[in-house]
Amino acid sequence: MKITNIKSTTVMIPLEAPLRHSNGAHWGRFVRTIVEVETDEGITGFGEMGGGGESAEVAFAGLKPYLLGHDPFQLEEMRFKICNPTASLYNNRTQLHAAIEFACLDIMGKKLGVPVHQLLGGKVRDSVSFASYLFYRLPNERTGEGEIRTVEQLIEHCRELKEKHGFTTHKLKGGVFHPDYELECYRALGDAFPRDRLRFDPNAALSVEDSIRFGQAIEGLNNDYFEDPTWGLNGMRRVRSMVRIPTATNTVVVNFEQLAANILNPAVDVILLDTTFWGGIRPCVKAAGVCETFQLGVAVHSSGELGIQLASMLHMGAVVPNLAFAADAHYHQLQDDILEGGKMKYENGAIRVPDGPGLGIQVSRDKIEQYAEMYREFGGYPYDRDPSRPDWFPLVPNERWADHRVKSI
Fold first, then answer.
1. Which residue range or ranges hold the Mandelate racemase/muconate lactonizing enzyme C-terminal domain (predicted)?
2. Core vs surface per residue 370-390: b (16+ CB within 10 A) or e
3. Most buried of the four, 57, 254, 326, 363, by CB within 10 Å?
4. Cβ partners under 8 Å of residue 76, min gap 6
C-alpha cells in the first residue's frame, strides 16, 4: 500500500460562546484543519490538527514530497522522515506528524478490519471518563448569551453540564481574572459540588509566589491536581515543594527529553498527554509506559478537538492502564461536529471507545464543506488575543488581569 495524496481542508466550528484563557480567547469558534491521506488501494484515513485559530493547509501541502509513495504501515520510518530530531530544529513538524499518524492508523485499521485500539495492544476500558471543562466566557456575539464571569454564572453552568452529561470532575480554566477572585470562584465550586473532583489550570499565568499562595489556599478541597500554575520546570518544582497537591502539566513536559528531566529531578506529578502535542497516539502510549514505570500519574489533555482528534484521545485512553484521571475535552463547548450524526454522546460523564475499523468514526463530507465555507467567510483569529481587550497582551507571569466586575460586550 502506498500514499497517493494528502488533502487538507480548514473548517470552522461554532462554540456556544467565546472561551477566555490566560493568553487570550477562542473567539467563539474553533479553527481546525482536517487531513485526508489517500492510498492506492482506495482507503482514505482522516487526521485533524488545530493551529491557534489559523489554517495549517500550507504546512500539510509541504509534506507531500516526503510522503507520496510512503507505506502508511511504516510509522517509525514516517516519524523520522517528518520529525528527525536534528532536522526539526529548523522546522518542528511534531503536530503535523500527529495528524498524519491519526490518518495512517485509520488506514491500517480499515485495511485490517480492526479498531485502532486493537493495533495499540487492545483496550483495557470500554469508555473514557471526562471532566467538565469550565471557562470564563464572553457573551455569544450573535445571541448575547453564554457569558460566564460571576461566581453564580460559573456554578450554574457547571450544574447544567453535570445534569446534562453526568460529569463528576470539574476543571476550571483560570488565568483571566485576578488570582484572588479566581480563588473565590474555585472555592465556590468546591462548596457547590463537595463530592466531585476538582482541578485548576491558570495556564502558567501566575508567579511562583502567587502559585504557592493559591495552592496552599485550596489544599483542603477535593483536588485532582494543580495544573500549570506557573511556567517552567524549575518554577513548578518550587511550587511542588511548598504545596500539598499533586502538580500537573501539559506545557513543560511535552516530549521525551522533558519527561526524562522531570523523572531525574521531579517537578510534575501528573503528565497530561496530548495526542497532538506529543506527535500522535503512539508517542502518548509510549510516554504513558514510561510514566507507569516511574509511578507518575497520567491524564489526557485537550487541545480543542473535533471528532477525529477526540477519537484519537479515546483510543489512546482505552489502552493506557495507568489512566487514573478523567480526561479533558473542550468537546461539550462545541455546537456541532464534522461527524455523521453530529457530536459523540456522553453517558454518565464518559464517551464509549469506538469499535469500528480504524478510528471508528464516520466523517461527513457535507459538514466538512459546510464548515469550510464558514472558515472562508470569517477567516482565522489570533488565539493569543482577547477580543474584549484589543490592546492587551499577556505577560508571563501575568499582572494585567481582566476586571470581573465589568460585563463584557
1. 151-246
2. ebbebbeeeebbebebbbeee
3. 326
4. none
Task: Give me the torsion for CA of 234, 236, 242, 244, rounded to 10°.
Answer: -150
Which residues are bridge partners to 272 per DSSP? 299
Looking at residue 327, what DSSP letter applies? B
Looking at the fold, whether 312 and 197 belong to one and the same domain comes out as yes
DSSP 372-383: HHHHHHH----T
C-alpha distance across the termini of the chain, in Å: 54
Domain range enclosing 77: 3-114+365-378
Place of cell 464558514: 374
Report the chain's C-alpha Rg in angstroms: 20
Successive 10-residue mean pLDDT values, the chain, 409 residues: 98 97 96 98 98 94 96 96 86 94 98 98 98 98 94 98 98 98 98 98 98 98 98 98 98 97 98 98 98 98 96 98 97 98 97 98 98 97 94 94 88
Closest CA to 135 of 304, 20, 300: 20
Print burial letters for 50-74: b (CB count within 10 Å at least 16), e (below 16).
bbbbbbbbebbeebeeebeebebee
Alpha-carbon distances, residue 92 vs 29, 133, 280 (angstroms)? 26, 29, 14
Q: Return the H-helix or E-strand segment holding 217.
A: helix 208-217
CA pair distance 301, 249, nearest whole angstrom: 9
- Asked if residue 161 and residue 214 are part of one domain, the reply reads yes
Nearest 5°: phi and psi at 121? 115, -5
Catalytic residue positions, numbered: 173, 301
For the chain, the domain total comes to 2
Cα–Cα distance, 315 to 311 (Å, whole number): 6
CB 394 within 8 A of CB 23: yes
**Single-letter residue type at 124:** V
Write the DSSP symbol of residue 167.
-
Whole-number Å distance between alpha carbons of 137 and 125: 33
* Within a domain: 395: no
Instruction: Determine phi and psi for 296, rounding to 5 degrees.
Output: -95, 145
The answer as to whether 387 is a domain residue is no
The verdict on whether omega for the bond into residue 115 sits within 30 degrees of 0, i.e. cis, is no
Task: Write the CA distances from 259 to 214, 242, 250, 296, 351, integer angstroms.
Answer: 26, 22, 11, 10, 29
Q: In what order do the strands lie in the sheet with 44-49?
A: 3-14, 29-39, 44-49
Distance CA 24, CA 180 (A): 20
Distance CA 202, CA 175 (A): 4
Q: How far lies 20's CA from each of 122, 147, 173, 359, in Å?
A: 38, 10, 8, 31
